Every structure is written in C-alpha cells, then in structure tokens.
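quick one
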Amino acid sequence: MNKKTVRDVDVTGKRVLVRVDFNVPIQDGEVTDDTRIRAALPTIQYLIEKGAKVILMSHLGRPKPENRDQFKMDPVAKRLSELLGRPVKKVDAVVGPEVEKAVAEMQPGDVLLLENTRFEPGERKNDPDLARKLAALADIYVNDAFGSAHRAHASTAGVKQVRPDLPAVAGFLMERELEMLGKVLSNPERPFVVVLGGAKISDKIGVLERLLGLADRVLIGGGMANTFLKAKGLEVGKSLVDEEALDEARRFLEEAGDKIVLPVDVVVADRFAADAEAQVVPVDRVPPDWMILDIGPKTVEQFAEILRQARTVFWNGPMGVFEFPRFAEGTFAIARVLAELEDAVTVVGGGDSAAAVQQAGLADKMTHVSTGGGAALEFLEGKELPGVAVLDPA
Ligand code: ADP
Ligand code: MG
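structure w/ magnesium ion:
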C-alpha cells in the first residue's frame, strides 16, 4: 500500500484524532450489531497500547434536527467501553469548549468519543471552519473509516485539507481494505472471476465496465441479470428491470462476448413476498405474470464450476432476494462455493452482499469481507476516494 499507516508515526503521548466508522444500527438505546465497532478495535487498541490520547469521531445515521436524540453516540460509547474493557468518555458535542476541555484533560491511553459528526451541518458540506476546529484537537489524524472514505466530508477529508502539515495516516482497517481491494484491481491471480448481482445496474455500470476489462469471467445473477436477460430479448415478466440500463447491457453483451455468463434457469415467484408461490424455470420460460427472485440450481452448478477454477474472486450483489428464505438459496449456495475454495483469494464487497455472507455464517471463510459498500465499489471503479487521497504517501 502506498499510504502511511499508524505504524509509521510516533503516537506516544500525542492527541490522535481517529475517524472511525461507528455507523451501527441502534434500537432502544442499544447497539444491535457491533460488527463495525469490532472492526475498528485493532487500531484503537494499538493506539492505547502505544500511549496515545485517542479521540474518536464518526457519523451515525442521517440525523435531522427533530430526531437527533436517536442518533447520539452514547450507546456506541457504552458498547465500545465493554469491548475495550476500559472507560470511554463521551462528550455531547463534536467541537467547541466542552470538547476542548475534555481533550485537554486526557492522559496517555485515554479514549474519548465525540458526538455524531453529522450533528454539525458543516460535516457533509466539508466546511473548512468545522474542519479547522477538528484539526485543532489533533497532533495526528488517522482515517480508519473505509466505509466513509468515498465521501469528502469535514471528518473524512477536510481535517487534512485545511491542515496539510498535520500527519495523516491510515488505520489498520483502512490498510487492510486498500490492500485486499487493491489485490483485486492490480495483478489478480488468474483465473479472476467476478460475481455480480444485486438490485440496480445504474449504480454499478462503472464497476462492471472496469471489472469486465480485468476479469476472465463475469457471472451475473440477482436483479442485475434480469436487465441482461431482457436486453437479450427474453421475457422477464414482472421482474425488477433497470430499464434505463438496457442499452448499456446490450453494449456490454456485444463487447464482452462469452466473458459474461448469465443464468440458464431462475426461480420465479407469483408476487414479491416471502410466502409467494415459487417454481424453477429455464430462462426462456418465465411466465409473463411472474417475477425472477433467484437464480436456479442449474445456474448455481454452472457458476460453481467456473468458480472452482478461480484463483481470485470478487463478489458484489446477492444472487436473489435473500431476505426471503425461499429465494435465498442461490445466494447462499454461491457463498458456500466461495467458502470452500482453498487456493483462491475471495473478496466480498457491498452492504447487502456482506450481510448475506454473514447470515450464511461464512464470513470467516472469505479472504476478505469489505466493510465499505459504496466505498468498495467506487474504489474498484478506479476512482480516488477523498478519504484516502488525503493520507500521507508512504
Ligand atoms: P450490495 O449492497 O451488496 O451492493 P445491492 O444493494 O445492489 O447489493 O442489492 C441488494 C438487493 O438486491 C437485495 O435487497 C436483494 O433483495 C435484491 N435483489 C437481488 N436479486 C433480486 C431480484 N431478482 N429481484 C429483486 N431484487 C433482487
Ligand atoms: Mg445495498
């Protein structure tokens, strides 16, 4: 990786301002899924052990002035404190006198959590004033929030932009994400197979284009396959189709030839519901009143055969509506195939794809499950992420 990390700076006794991704689900004042908090622990623990004064900041949800209380960071501080086994002081502001006082009182090894950065209107606008106030709290800036690195906000990019002299380095999570996704982009071991699915193509055209150029095969399932099947002139009934992407899909099919592999059979449903009636049909036999909600068993077998030869696999987008158990089999079957690959690098990216792999209980069996949905896709598209761009070169 061509960026400095926390290992490259002397943090002892320093005020280290760390942008983490603590955007976790909260219900009745409790964190219901602490995966993202756990993902940030290696960096936080390292900084504590080195005797840094650890100042953490993150956004949480999309707070509005009317419903702010639901988005306070207190439940996160509580959970983090349990996971670290030490106190975490939480302040009720992002910047200002209360924060400055708390920072001034910190001892080496202390952990302080700032309030939700999005309580400050300047956060999303990347307001230089807010960025300057945040920068004033720090001797060193660390970005460990890969999942937010595609946004140029005050806490992800602004702090370094207004203070170019402030050392800015990657945390361990950021480092791992950049390394693993970087491996996919540059010199993947071949065969390199990409599996794409999910709901919309319009969001993913850039990634598809880029990956089509890099991969040996691109297996397409999920809602994305419907658009391709329709582009080929097949009846897809009431299936989810991205009408605006049909021309693009046709172009991809022409240019990519047999690099693109589409489903040969699908699971169709009579309506969009968990208890819908379901049947498996060949792709050219979709009844006009039905909709495709999963890939079929022959497709799974065909995809599996290709995947078993692969040395590098990148997967984004579920193969079907895995939220409904009846239509989850395609997605889980592909997850199992990836889990069983022994000599391949397997990287899963995308919010729902990561959730599916987690639900299947197979996340540990992948080489890497990215914590960043949008960020991972933009990175793979070849875009420079603002939160990465600001980090000091190694
Ligand atoms: P990710 O978050 O991994 O990038 P997306 O957000 O693009 O993935 O897509 C995930 C969603 O796609 C899931 O909610 C899933 O139900 C939906 N989906 C997958 N296949 C289909 C399908 N055939 N029809 C409708 N929705 C689908
Ligand atoms: Mg999603």
